[in-house]
Amino acid sequence: MDATFFALVGLVLFFVLLAFLKVPGMMAKGLDARADKIRDELAEAKRLREEAQHLLAEYQRKRKEAEAEAAAIVAAAEREAAALTAEAKQKTEEFVARRNALSEQKIKQAESEAVNAVRAAAVDLAIAATEKVLAKKADAAVQQQLFSAAVGEVKARLN
């Protein structure tokens, strides 16, 4: 009996003891449990990845909608600004036209008043000159006759 024989017997007893204690089954169960756990983790990771892709697609869709809405708001603001600019330009032109018309009307009125003032001054000057001439050349009878004629003319015009 050699040491090799005892080593062989020890090895066989070790394997029998392992078989008796059902160590291979326990190892298989442990490996199966670990494989199931890994499989579940992979399935969970796959599910999470699909959910993340779905969320990414949804956020990209929302981003595109937000960009489209922002573009629409900018376009509406540009249209409104153009309309306000056109309206302001039109109101400014109308204001300038009204101011020009008012200025022209005031100028015409001032011209008319100036012409009337010149005429009144000319009439007053002519009357004064006529009075001086008549006073020098006319006697009392002619003056009375002229006065009566002027009063009669005024009465005729007033009636």
Automatic annotation (TrEMBL):
The keyword Transmembrane helix applies. Residues 28-120 form a coiled coil. It is a single-pass membrane protein. It holds the Pfam family ATP-synt_B. GO terms for molecular function: proton-transporting ATP synthase activity, rotational mechanism; proton-transporting ATPase activity, rotational mechanism. Its main location: membrane. F(1)F(0) ATP synthase produces ATP from ADP in the presence of a proton or sodium gradient. F-type ATPases consist of two structural domains, F(1) containing the extramembraneous catalytic core and F(0) containing the membrane proton channel, linked together by a central stalk and a peripheral stalk. During catalysis, ATP synthesis in the catalytic domain of F(1) is coupled via a rotary mechanism of the central stalk subunits to proton translocation. This is ATP synthase subunit b.
